[in-house]
Design goal:
Rossmann fold; 2 domains; 6-stranded parallel beta sheet
C-alpha cells in the first residue's frame, strides 16, 4: 500500500462535480415530471432551464415535494415511491451511455493518486447510479468501492445532503479527522452538508455544464455565502488550493 504523503483527505461530490451528469439526469427527471403532472394535476410548472437551475443537487423525492407543495392535489407515499424508482431507472439508462467526467477531472485525480493524497466520492446518489456514471465516464479505476460513499445506500437509512451524515460517515470510514478534510461541491445542499459536518476546507465548483456562463458568478457567490471558502470554475485549480 502506498504511503500517504499528505494529511488532507479530499472528499468529492459526484453529480456536477466529478461527473458532468446533472444536465443529463435533470433533463430525464424533467421529462418524467411533465408526465407526472398529467397523471397528478396541480404541479407547479417549470421549463427545462428553470428546472435545472432550481433542482440541481436535489433528490427526486425532494423535487416532487417542491413541485406539489402548493397544490391541493397531493401524492400518496406509494405514488412517490413509484415515481422515485422510475426516475432512478430512467436516469441510470441515460447516464450509463452519456455520462462524462467534468473537464480536467481525470488529470486532477491522477495527480492526487500519484501525489499520495487520499480522496473519496461522497454523494447523494445511489451506488447503482454512481457505478453507471463512473463506468461511462471511465473513472472506475480512480474510485474503488471503499472510496465511494452514498447517502442513499451507505447509511442505515437514507440521509441526503444538506444533512451532514454522509460526510461524517465517510470521514469515520477513512479514519480521517473531518477538520482535516477538503470537500469539493457544486451545490448549495452539498456545501451546507460539509459545513454542518465540520469539514475544514470547502471548495465550491462551478465548472459543470448545468451552470450557464451567465449564472456562474451568482452561483459562486451563493456557494461562498453558504460556506465555501474558495470557488473554482476549472477543476485543475483544485491542485493549487491543496
Amino acid at each position: 500500500m502506498k504511503q500517504l504523503q499528505h494529511d488532507k483527505v479530499v472528499l468529492f461530490d459526484h453529480d456536477g462535480t466529478v461527473v458532468d451528469s446533472e444536465t443529463i439526469a435533470l433533463k430525464s427527471a424533467w421529462k418524467l415530471t411533465n408526465e407526472v403532472a398529467i397523471e397528478f394535476p396541480g404541479a407547479l410548472d417549470y421549463n427545462l432551464e428553470e428546472f435545472v437551475k432550481s433542482f440541481a443537487g436535489k433528490p427526486y423525492r425532494e423535487i416532487l415535494k417542491k413541485i406539489y407543495a402548493d397544490s391541493s392535489t397531493s401524492l400518496k407515499q406509494d405514488d412517490i415511491d413509484r415515481l422515485v424508482a422510475e426516475e432512478e431507472k430512467r436516469a441510470i439508462e441515460r447516464l450509463s451511455v452519456e455520462a462524462k467526467p467534468t473537464e480536467g477531472t481525470p488529470e486532477v485525480l491522477s495527480y492526487l493518486r500519484g501525489g499520495g493524497f487520499e480522496y473519496a466520492l461522497v454523494s447523494n446518489s445511489s451506488l447503482q447510479r454512481l457505478s453507471a456514471c463512473l463506468n461511462a465516464a471511465a473513472l472506475t479505476d480512480y474510485f474503488p468501492s471503499q472510496q465511494v460513499f452514498s447517502a442513499h445506500d451507505s447509511l442505515p437509512a437514507a440521509r441526503p445532503k444538506p444533512l451532514p451524515d454522509i460526510y461524517l460517515y465517510a470521514a469515520k470510514c477513512l479514519d480521517a479527522d473531518v477538520s482535516g478534510c477538503v470537500a469539493v461541491e457544486d451545490s448549495l445542499s452539498g456545501v451546507k452538508a460539509a459545513v454542518a459536518a465540520g469539514i475544514g476546507q470547502i471548495i465550491g465548483y462551478v465548472g459543470g455544464t448545468h451552470i450557464s456562463e451567465n449564472e456562474r458568478q451568482s452561483r459562486a457567490d451563493a456557494l461562498q455565502s453558504a460556506g465555501a471558502g474558495q470557488v473554482i470554475d476549472r477543476m485543475q485549480d483544485l491542485i493549487t488550493l491543496l
